[in-house]
């Protein structure tokens, strides 16, 4: 067996390992709600104490259903724009490209330098269709490399909650101005979740503590997003039906009720924000 890749991350970059662990654990199941063999390969390739750091991957299905929200929206986009570009902001070790690739999409990953260094070791670029750019989603460089000629979809999965609210609003305003007619799919955390991270109360029994997540999403925040210039609409994306009585029956029923859905218990709020033409 080849040597595994040692990894040492902390703070926000370390969250990519939690996400990967949850997704891969679900993908190993014969009845998985998300087929993600690439995630399983990555976990097996990494020298990292996943279980010792994060405990049991109890939220594997919850995390996988969130990923499927993004997958389904990207597939919908590629159905209309088969040669389009997807810009994945803060992608970490997400393996979405391999789940949705139609053989024609152009994919640009944007992430912090320490994350890009790890990602390019494990998932080397394959130009011209799949490229990686080191930098923050708040930088200007990726804006210059985004190409809306054949359709453009921006994705920010598990990212914006780590920004301050004014940073999120400025990013959305900039994208809406630069990319008329494009869409950004994004997720957030509800206010109660944001408060617990700020207070240091989101931790596992093994000692892992989630970083602060200052930006929270509720009905009032969605109204603020809709009021940003050149935002044409905001649409909630519901998680698909999962497995078992909780994810297969109770949560889909509760997700029909917007106040319950926005509590973030059945899944983090996922939205598609459309920019005006």
Automatic annotation (TrEMBL):
Pfam families hit by this protein: LCM
InterPro entries the record matches: Ppm1/Ppm2/Tcmp, SAM-dependent_MTases_sf
Keyword Mitochondrion tagged: no
GO molecular function (one): methyltransferase activity
Any single biological process term in GO: methylation
Alphabetic keyword roster: Methyltransferase, Transferase
Gene3D superfamilies per UniProt: Vaccinia Virus protein VP39
Protein known as: Class I SAM-dependent methyltransferase
């Amino acid at each position: 067996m080849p040597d595994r890749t040692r990894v040492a991350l902390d703070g926000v970059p370390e969250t990519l390992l939690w996400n990967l662990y949850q997704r891969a654990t679900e993908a190993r199941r014969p009845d998985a709600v998300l087929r993600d063999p690439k995630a399983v390969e990555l976990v097996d390739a990494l020298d990292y104490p996943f279980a010792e750091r994060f405990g049991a991957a109890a939220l594997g299905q919850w995390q996988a259903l969130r990923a499927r929200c993004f997958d389904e929206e990207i597939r919908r986009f590629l159905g209309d724009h088969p040669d389009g570009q997807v810009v994945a902001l803060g992608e970490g070790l997400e393996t979405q490209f391999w789940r949705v690739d139609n053989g024609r999409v152009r994919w640009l990953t944007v992430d912090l330098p320490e994350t890009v260094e790890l990602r390019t070791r494990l998932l080397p670029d394959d130009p011209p269709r799949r490229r990686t750019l080191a930098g923050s989603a708040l930088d200007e460089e990726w804006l210059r490399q985004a190409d809306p000629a054949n359709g453009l979809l921006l994705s920010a999965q598990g990212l914006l909650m780590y920004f301050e609210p004014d940073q999120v609003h400025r990013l959305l305003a900039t994208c809406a101005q630069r990319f008329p007619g494009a869409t950004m799919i994004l997720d957030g955390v509800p206010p109660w979740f944001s408060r617990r991270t700020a207070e240091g109360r989101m931790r596992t029994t093994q000692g892992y503590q989630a970083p602060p997540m200052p930006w929270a999403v509720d009905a009032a925040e969605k109204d603020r997003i809709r009021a940003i210039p050149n935002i044409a609409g905001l649409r909630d994306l519901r998680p698909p039906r999962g497995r078992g009585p909780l994810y297969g029956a109770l949560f889909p029923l509760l997700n029909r009720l917007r106040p319950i859905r926005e509590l973030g218990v059945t899944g983090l709020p996922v939205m598609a924000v459309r920019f005006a033409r």
